Structure formats: C-alpha cells, structure tokens
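Re: that chain you flagged

S.,

Sorry for the slow reply, it's been a week of failed gels. I finally had a moment to sit down with the sequence you sent. For the record, here it is as I used it:
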Amino acid sequence: MGLIRYLMRVFCEAFWPSLNITKTIIFVLFICTGLAIYLYPPARMVVEWTNLGGWQGAAKILCVIVVIRFFFASYLIFKDENTQLIATKETLSRISEDRPFSYVNIAPRVRTNNFNIWTVEKIELLFDNLSERTISYKIIELFCEIEGNRRTIPLPPNAGGYIHARQRISYGFEPNDLTVRIFPAIIIIGFCIEYDNVPPLKKRGTKSIIRHTFRSFAPMDKHWNTDIINQDEYWVS
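Prediction finished late last night. Pasting the structure tokens below so you have them in one place:
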C-alpha cells in the first residue's frame, strides 16, 4: 500500500500541475502565433504545417511537460516534505524557547506480596530541558492519586534544582505506600512548577494533572498510556 500511495503521489505531482503549465504555454503561443501572422502573413503556412493550432500541439506540449515533471517528481516531493519538516522544526524550536520545561513520564518503583497486591514505594518524575540554556526550577505543589486515594506530597524547601541544556532530570518522592489491587491501574500525578533561565530571563510556570494507565507493574511490561487531564502554562509576575 505504501508503494501504491507513493506512485499515486508521483503521478499527481507530474500530471496535475502540468495541466496549468500547458494551458499557460498554449495561451502564450496562441498570442505569439497570432501576432506573428499579423506582422508576417506567410507565417501562417508554418503554423498550419506544424499544426500548432490543433489538439495535437497541445497534447505534445502536455506530454513533454508530464515527462519532465515525472523525472523530477521525487525531488519535488522531497522538497515539499523537507520544507514542511523545516517549518515544523522552527515551530518546535520557538515552543521550546518559550516553554523549555517539559514533563516526560513517571517511573514507579513497586513491590508485591503473594496476594498480588502491589505497593508503590517510590515514583520518579522525569523532566526534559528542551532549550539550549540551563534552567532552574522549583516545585510548588505536588500530589499523587491511586485508586481514588489522593495524597499531597510534602515538599522540602529545596524541592527543585537545575537542568542543563538538552538534558533530562528526575525528581523522586515516596507516596507513603499507596497500594494497587486491580489492573489496569491509574496513577494521577499533579504538579505546579515554576522555572526560569540561567541567568534569569523570564519566570514561567506550568501546572499539570496527568493520568497514567498501567496494564501491570511486571518488570518486562513497559506498556502504559499517558493522558493530560489539565495543563496550564503561565507567566510569573
């Protein structure tokens, strides 16, 4: 199916634009031919001999243009996709400069007993710095919810730190032995974090509530879904 879609795209890239180009060329030739006959009447014989005024002339022009565009179709497709890719990278770059502090995922550390009751001993929050500059961050609020049991996580005065450019850090906390008895298990993490560039440039904040759905906590099972329930980015005055 991928090959068929590609061939169809090559055909469309070669054929449909050729129609507009052909119409433009025929229009220009029609005017130039009429002007040539008006200024030099014997030119009519040349026009009739070459049959430029009939449909054969238009078909020949169209075929030539289609063949040329067919050979360049791959390059034209690459050029279009490369332009879109560059535009996407520029957009992501602007976003990363405005909101460089990005939440990635969680890494829970659990233990279980013989009754298939899982206890969440520790949770690591992973964050990325998407910018080219070091940023400092401070966690203002943090809570964890498992099976409807929400607990506010007490924070030390130094809850935060620094993230170097294009690096990832983790912040770990103990949710006071929250337990899971039924799967899929849902762990909801909520946090409010303020951050700034180093040296300070503009202080920003991010407030998010994120739901993580785990199929199991088995060591070899790394499949889970992450859904953003609420997210707010703001400037700190």
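What I noticed first: The CA atoms of residues 26 and 58 lie 7 Å apart.

Talk soon,
D.
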